[in-house]
């Protein structure tokens, strides 16, 4: 039987996923582009944003830190909801992430960018670290 806590996390992840899909496909003034946009070379986009002369600090924060931060909740919530080993939880996350990137490409409402996958994965792993630290904290309080 699913615990109330796990039910809450399941609800939260579904709501957050719907919000994220909106942001990534329609938010921020996204409209279909004339061309398919993609980057398959690791660290190209990240490198461009790290060149201070090319982008403002606001653009840097939104694109780099935003791509990390927006996926932290998945690292916290998914292990609770799915109760799988870490590699399997990450594999499930990666399938969803690649599906999102392909949807952006095919709808032309964004780009498929391997650097987004890298940054989003970093966010997931930060969230997973938070999950593990919280689990350890609560486990030690019970003993």
TrEMBL record:
Keyword NAD: no
Keywords for the protein's UniProt record, in alphabetical order: Membrane, Transmembrane, Transmembrane helix
Residues passing through the membrane, by range: 7-28, 60-82, 89-106, 118-138
Species name: Paenibacillus apis
Name under which the protein is recorded: VanZ-like domain-containing protein
PANTHER family, sorted: INTEGRAL MEMBRANE PROTEIN (PTHR36834:SF1), MEMBRANE PROTEIN-RELATED (PTHR36834)
Keyword Nucleotidyltransferase (UniProt): no
Top-level taxon of origin: Bacteria
């Amino acid at each position: 039987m699913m615990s109330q806590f796990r039910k809450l996390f399941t609800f939260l992840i579904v709501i957050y996923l719907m919000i994220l899909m909106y942001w990534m496909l329609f938010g921020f003034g996204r409209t279909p582009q004339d061309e398919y946009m993609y980057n398959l070379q690791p660290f190209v986009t990240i490198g461009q944003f790290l060149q201070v002369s090319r982008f403002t600090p606001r653009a840097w924060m939104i694109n780099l830190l935003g791509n990390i931060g927006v996926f932290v909740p998945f690292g916290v919530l998914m292990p609770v909801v799915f109760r799988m080993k870490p590699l399997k939880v990450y594999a499930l996350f990666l399938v969803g992430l690649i599906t999102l990137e392909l949807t952006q490409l095919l709808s032309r409402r964004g780009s498929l960018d391997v650097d987004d996958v890298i940054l989003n994965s970093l966010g997931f792993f930060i969230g997973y670290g938070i999950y593990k630290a919280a689990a350890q904290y609560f486990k030690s309080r019970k003993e």
